[in-house]
Design brief:
- By secondary structure, this protein is an all-alpha fold.
- The chain has 2 domains: 136 residues, no CATH class; 67 residues, no CATH class.
- 60% of the residues lie in helices and 3% in strands.
- It is built from 9 helices and 2 strands, in the order αααααββαααα.
- α4 crosses α6.
- The longest helix has 24 residues.
- The chain is elongated, with a radius of gyration of 21 Å.
- 22% of the residues are buried.
Length: 223
């Protein structure tokens, strides 16, 4: 039986994704995670490690903190409440950002952060309202290298999960969980994230080879 804690993990993340993008995006998440949960319970009774890993790390891939999300988090009211709780009066806000489309580059070609004053708050509210453009042909940020890679990671993960579910058994279950957890290794931003991504993909390939060659579980003769 699926634990209540896993139900809560899934539901909380689905609620976040609905605010992050929309209900359809949240349903995309729910559909895959619930399919994993059903398959795992049927193939490996009593275990939900795979469903929990996917619930956490599929979400991580879907909920990238892109330009629209940064704008939403600054403008949805929660940031203003944090500032009011931490400081008295009206502190002057200053934001250090590196917009991918407009940022200057350093000698390595990496985006450099610049300082922005409180005048960007209305811009945040405006940009947050455009989140529906995310991933469409009208998404000007979606054409950057990082955003293209992030969308590919989501598709690759869905393809990987399909292969895992088609061949899941008690004998390869532990490897399947490790594969589903690979996005946890992809951390940071910009060039740091790309470095972690390369290492994570190399580890994923090794695990996938193990998964594909794992022997079938031995059936013990009845005593």
């Amino acid at each position: 039986m699926q634990s209540r804690s896993l139900d809560e993990v899934i539901e909380r993340r689905a609620t976040f994704l609905a605010a992050y993008q929309d209900e359809a995006y949240a349903k995309r998440y729910l559909a895959l995670v619930k399919h994993i949960d059903e398959t795992e319970r049927a193939r490996v009774p009593g275990r939900h490690d795979l469903a929990e890993a996917a619930a956490r790390y599929y979400f991580k891939l879907l909920a990238i903190k892109d330009e629209y999300e940064v704008a939403r988090l600054y403008s949805d009211g929660s940031f203003a409440k944090q500032i009011a709780a931490a400081f008295e009066g009206e502190p002057r806000l200053e934001f250090h950002l590196a917009p991918p489309v407009f940022s200057r580059k350093n000698e390595k070609g990496e985006a450099r952060k610049s300082s922005f004053g409180p005048w960007v708050m209305p811009l945040f509210r405006f940009l947050a309202g455009l989140k529906g453009l995310r991933g469409t042909v009208f998404d000007i940020f979606g054409y950057t290298k990082d955003r293209r890679i992030e969308r590919k990671l989501i598709r690759d993960y869905e393809i990987l999960i399909a292969e895992i579910l088609a061949n899941l058994s008690p004998g390869n279950h532990a490897i399947a969980v490790a594969l589903a957890s690979i996005p946890e290794k992809i951390r940071g931003y910009g060039h740091v994230k790309m470095w972690h991504l390369q290492a994570a993909k190399a580890e994923e390939q090794g695990l996938l080879e193990q998964f594909r060659t794992a022997p079938a579980p031995v059936k013990l003769a009845a005593e």
